[in-house]
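ok so i was messing around last nite and threw this chain in just to see what happens. nothing serious, just curious
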Amino acid sequence: MSRSDLSVLDVFFNPRTVAVIGASRDPTKVGYQILYNLKQKYRGKIYPVNPHAKKILGLKCYKSVLDIKDDVDLAIISVPAPVVLSVVDECGRKGVKGLIVISAGFKEIGGEGVEREKKLVEIVKKYGMRMIGPNCVGVYVPKTGLNTTFLNPSRMGFPPHGHIAFISQSGAFGIAVLDWAAMRGVGISKFISVGNKADVDEADLLDYLVKDPDTRVITLYIEGVERGQEFREALKRTTLRKPVIALKSGRSEAGARAIASHTGSLAGTDAIYSAVFKQTGVIRAYGMEDLFDMAVALSMQPPAPGKRVAILTVGGGSGVMATDACIDLGLEVPKLSEATEEKLRKVLLPIASPHNPVDVTGSARDEHLIESVEILMRSGEIDAIIWIPYFMVPGISEKIVEKFIERVKKVNRELDKPIPIVGAATGGEYTWKLAAKAEKLGIPMYLSVERAAKAVWALSRYGEWLIKNGVYEEYVERFRKIVGY
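result:
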């Protein structure tokens, strides 16, 4: 199979049949947990392979993948490293299309591991197969129920279906992110732990995911890349159609040394990665929350056509802090025109401030926020809005979320350039009950104004890239069809 034929990569995410080679009866073994996880929600056929067992978890076992009568689309391999090569050769003879090699003991250990990985790649190419790994934790696709990881769901969370794809070079970091995303309520379209990237790498996956209808945003955790030019070209192709956010570790000399001992990859000079990201429109993150804060915003809201931010707040202090956060990021919090301020005065209480930030005060009612947001969106003076509702004040009802978002969507359907909105909801259980409702309806909510400002920065940065390349209108048209405005 040619490396350029990326349609075969679909076998990693939507296979009809899966063989688990190295399936185990021991619940403490990786091979048991992989089989268990697959049995939970995967709707295709599962074939455990273990020469010493007749049944595992109620499924008939096979001595070899060659003994399975059905075609095998995908094989998950979890056997000791010295056995992997013979098992992969059997997969090739069987006609297996895709391999996920969980087993470690390859390039990352140096010495004989390097040679073993070279031979592994030779066998994979000989039979025209594609491979993720080795030394990875697998793939997770909520939509198809495919979970080839070896993590116990009683000890960690697996997030629901969503529109953010996550590619991780680190397996441990990848599963930590999955667990965090489940707790945070962030949906995932596809999670891929690439491990040593002996075959399938980030460039391949970018070219696949850019065409994936379930993926709106692609996130990356990178330690080092081998096919630098191909990676750069894939990034540029992708960012013209979908935002890419990258978390690149190994920025320090000590961090680069740690990467070399961890996966056998060369981290490369951080300045080079920064330059490539800038040249290709990649948005760089500097931590896990940063990565997904920006991804959530970009998956739910249209890109901002500029840097001008309006702040609509129930609390004056929060408005000031949000202003500082925006200015620190290079955004603008412009003074509103007299005409716009006059319109705001007509719908606000006399004690409210119609200036930017617009402070409706703690005496506000639902209609003060709703009418104000429409005036700001239609003003032509701003490119994005940070909404700070303070749900706990007496005049704000539990219906505010539905009413506010309904108005926002209505106005955005009528505007040539839709205005993105993010929220900051500092508070406890009651606040986050309503904030969670807002996210389900399409407005991302953050625990602090600083995080909300960073999300707006990402929306503005991506909008700037699209405008620079002359594809902003095209992107927005596609986005409107996806989200309904």
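not much to say yet. The two ends are 41 Å apart (CA to CA).
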